[in-house]
């Protein structure tokens, strides 16, 4: 009996246990509005494994700190779940790149019909072939897939780091806006009570209509500013909730000790640039992507060789003779020598090289710009804080002068509004300092710049300096 016939029978008769069964996964939006399980978050935060983020004793019962908000965002942000799914795709690509090609079995059956000699038999036979082309470039393909998987891991970690920094920044912004809104509320409430008293004084003939108009105008302006800041607080709360994976109507309390810096003195530009390309996860990911493309170029070059398949055939002809023998087939590389794919992969490699060079160039310039901005903001905060006592003294002086009839109410309200505006402006400058600090951490790949422990060290973030 023909050996190929035996093989065909074995293949058709043996089940394939390695086959994967289809299992549907229906879409569901139930998880979109779910609140994270804080017990699981506490455990996961203590065990978090990330190239930059550190394990944290997470305790939301006394309010969230900026670092806790950052870790919560990494663990609970729904958008990051979709990002992490890329790892499974990359792992599947590595698996696929290493799988050997299946042998190809062909079989034919030729039944004689019509007039034929009595000794004529049914002709059958077949071939068993194995493609060697995938073996030639298999090593390069596996290397490319493995480097690509490492690049995906780093890219996922980089996106997690970006979300963590965004959550940390959103925490500080929410704190700042709440302080600013509180100042606006206090001024608005004071002017509301004052307008009521002045209306009563006008009825008794103690004040003039001009003074009441000035008070009402100041009250309207203060209330408008208050409503605007309260709107910004609500919007920032929604932004914060989205980043940390909370439903829009949630409101986790924040730590009461969160403070804004009055001054930052980060290390020099040269210090930050030292080792930058090994700290920035996106740059390391780009290097891994470039290594993957190098292997892809090599695989494309190896694929220019003829596609060769080897095997053997076994045929029983009409005369009942068996004719087994080896078989080999090869493409003739006359027209297609994979030159198109080689050109594409080389161009892609050059594109990745240029992207990496440009990313490093931009990062270095961004860090330099941030350091200049921090220095400018330090001066702005110092100038604004220096003007605050002057305005406070002016408000006290005008209030006393108003009681003695030596100043107008317009001057007093103007000074009072200017004092509140100055306090809000100081908070704005301090928030901008935090913006620059968090962005600098993101750009340089440091978890917390104030913890680097190298001179000159930044001002402690625990030092509260809120008017």
pLDDT average, as an integer?
84
Percentage of residues assigned to helices = 55-70%
Low-confidence stretches: 453-467
Distance between the termini: 97 Å
Overall 3D geometry? elongated
Structure, explained:
By secondary structure, the chain is an alpha+beta fold. It has a single domain (36-444), classed as Up-down Bundle (Outer membrane efflux proteins (OEP)), CATH 1.20.1600.10. The chain is 62% helix and 7% strand. It has helices spanning 3-13, 38-46, 66-76, 78-98, 133-136, 138-203, 209-244, 269-273, 276-279, 281-302, 339-403, 409-444; strands at residues 104-110, 123-131, 308-316, 325-330. It has a four-stranded antiparallel β-sheet with strand order 1-2-3-4. Helix 3 crosses helix 6, helix 6 runs antiparallel to helix 7 (209-244) and helix 10 (281-302) packs antiparallel against helix 11. The radius of gyration is 37 Å and the shape is elongated. It starts with a helix and ends in a 23-residue tail after the last helix. The model is unreliable at 453-467 (pLDDT under 50).
Compact overview of the structure:
Helix content is 62%, strand content 7%. With 467 residues, the chain is α+β, with helices and mostly antiparallel strands.
């Amino acid at each position: 009996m023909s050996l190929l016939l035996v093989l065909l029978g074995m293949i058709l008769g043996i089940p394939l246990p390695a086959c994967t069964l289809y299992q549907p996964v229906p879409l569901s939006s139930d998880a979109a509005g779910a609140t994270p399980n804080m017990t699981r978050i506490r455990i996961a935060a203590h065990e978090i494994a990330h190239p930059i983020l550190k394990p944290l004793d997470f305790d939301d019962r006394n309010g969230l700190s900026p670092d806790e908000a950052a870790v919560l965002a990494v663990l609970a942000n729904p958008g990051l779940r979709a990002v992490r799914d890329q790892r499974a795709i990359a792992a599947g690509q590595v698996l696929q790149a290493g799988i050997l090609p299946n042998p190809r079995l062909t079989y034919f059956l030729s039944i004689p019909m019509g007039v034929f000699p009595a000794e004529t038999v049914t002709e059958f036979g077949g071939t068993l072939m194995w493609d060697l082309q995938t073996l030639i470039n298999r090593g390069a393909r596996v290397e490319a897939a493995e480097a690509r998987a490492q690049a995906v891991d780093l890219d996922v970690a980089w996106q997690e780091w970006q979300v963590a920094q965004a959550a940390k920044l959103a925490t500080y912004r929410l704190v700042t806006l709440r302080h600013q809104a509180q100042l606006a509320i206090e001024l608005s409430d004071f002017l509301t009570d004052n307008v009521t008293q002045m209306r009563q004084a006008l009825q008794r003939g103690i004040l003039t209509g001009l003074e009441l108009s000035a008070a009402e105008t100041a009250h309207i302006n203060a209330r408008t500013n208050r409503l605007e800041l309260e709107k910004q607080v609500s919007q920032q709360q929604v932004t914060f909730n989205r980043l940390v994976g909370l439903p829009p109507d949630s409101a986790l309390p924040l730590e009461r000790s969160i403070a804004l810096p009055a001054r930052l003195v980060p290390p020099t530009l040269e210090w930050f640039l030292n080792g930058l390309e090994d700290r920035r996860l996106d740059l390391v990911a780009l290097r891994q992507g470039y290594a993957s493309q190098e292997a892809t170029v090599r695989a494309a070059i190896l694929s220019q060789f003829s596609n060769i398949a080897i095997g053997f055939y076994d045929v029983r002809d009409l005369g009942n003779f068996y004719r087994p023998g080896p078989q080999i087939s090869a493409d003739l590389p006359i027209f297609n020598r994979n030159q198109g794919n080689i050109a594409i992969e080389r161009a892609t490699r050059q594109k990745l090289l240029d992207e990496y060079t440009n990313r490093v160039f931009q990062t270095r310039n961004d860090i330099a710009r941030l350091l200049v901005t921090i220095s400018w903001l330090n001066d702005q905060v110092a100038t604004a804080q220096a003007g605050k006592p002057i305005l406070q003294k002016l408000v006290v002086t005008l209030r006393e002068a108003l009681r003695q009839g030596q100043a107008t109410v317009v001057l007093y309200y103007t000074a009072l509004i200017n004092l509140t505006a100055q306090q809000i402006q100081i908070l704005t400058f301090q928030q901008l300092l935090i913006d620059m600090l968090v962005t600098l951490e993101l750009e340089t790949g440091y978890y917390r710049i104030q913890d680097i422990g190298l001179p000159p060290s930044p001002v402690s973030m625990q030092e509260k300096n809120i008017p």
